[in-house]
Fold:
Amino acid sequence: MKKLNYIWIEFYHFLGEFAIMACPSQPVQGTPPCSSEHCGGVQNNINNICKAQGWPVGNPVFTTEPQHPDGCYCCCSCLALGTPVAAPEGVRPIEAFQIGDQVLAAGKDLQWDSKYVEFSQGTGVGSKNTFSIFVQFGQESLIVTSDHLFLMPDKTLKRADRLSNLDSLVRQDGSTVSVSSVHIGDFYGGFHHIATSTEQPDQDLSGHLIITNGIVSADYAAQLFLRNGEEDVAGLTPDQDSLPIVGTPEHVEFYGDQPELLLGTAIKNSGVVSMLADVMPSTPAFVPASQTRIDIPDNACSFLSDDDAEAIKAAGTFRSFTDPSGQQWAEYLSTQFAAFYPNIQYLVDWADNTVNAYAYVQNGQRYVTLKGGLLRLSFIEVEGIALVLAHETAHHVGGSPTFPGGLTCEGQSDFFGANVVMRKVWFGPYYITVMNRAIPQMQAFLGGTAGGGTPCSHPPGPCRISTYQAALAAQPKPACAA
Structure:
């Protein structure tokens, strides 16, 4: 298995920035986002909830408002501790600003003036924040969340996760600096954010552009309103949603591979950067997605045959790489399953586009790994992922018949996973609720799959659906899955 390589950033030299993470722009399981006005008004308490729960930037927090009495969501959000922000008296770290302090702010004309900070609030240190963007420009760098907005030379705003080495960023005086490389990954650290007001900005973004490590960025208020789709606030870079996302194969195909962040690299104004394997960071650290991919052994059992996985990948529709829904569902479920099966290590390999999940034994340790391509499928939600995890868990605990290496065969894993594992993980009637939601998702997923064609390999898709239905009804395993 590939080791995880962490880029450590010396905390008191760290000059990165976090803005607002990519909270889902589409409804989460039918729940819409709350209005910008509501989220802005309750953001202090939202972030207190996030801090108490240890949730990362961008995690949805479900609540209600008058126009959404059945529920809506706001998101955890903040800026990185240590971010250098320009004030009239000089540069100060973001967490030093309090309500009533002054900050340098401007509109698109870049006429800088003092503005009072009307919003300043932070969360704790040490949380894991996915989909973070590491931007290198000249000899400097910033770390930002994926939907952080940079002012571009044409006076539009561009999301960080759509940047490339063909872009330039704007400095305080209006001059530009070329982006040398851009990476996506996880960031471990503390957060804070400020805004000059919580009102909707005007078209010129008057007073809502600030200076972060010398680069012009949008403040919290502009981020909040634009994130919620209110694009009349100011112009975004045209066709932004169609641009490839940093770290995806489409981005690599269009722009080429980005220079690696190498062991021992020193980046001016961003502290000392080094690499350390397999240790959870205790100081701020950036983990490139390219270093988190997990190698699967050849003898692993998979949820899909290779041919079926490739067919689904070619024909399927997928949520965005930076939509956190699938990853958060998978990480929650991994914790849930691990509580009942502590001898199995559950891993989420979000960066890998493979549409599959695997069970295997390596160096005496039992593993289940979910790949990002499967988690991003548009028709798979939390219940479907749970059934996939149950199948992979059953490879370890489902009994005979087995492969030569001792893992349970595919048809038996389908049945034991749905019949036993799911009942163990989901208490009482919740089992029925989850299964009733999971099976239609599996029909969309597996309906056209051919299977492997040998006694121990994957049954055809219709047989697998019949197996799940038989388990739900407490019926015997169908003969096609024997």
Q: What stands out?
A: The domain at 1-290 is CATH 2.170.16.10 (Endonuclease - Pi-scei; Chain A, domain 1).
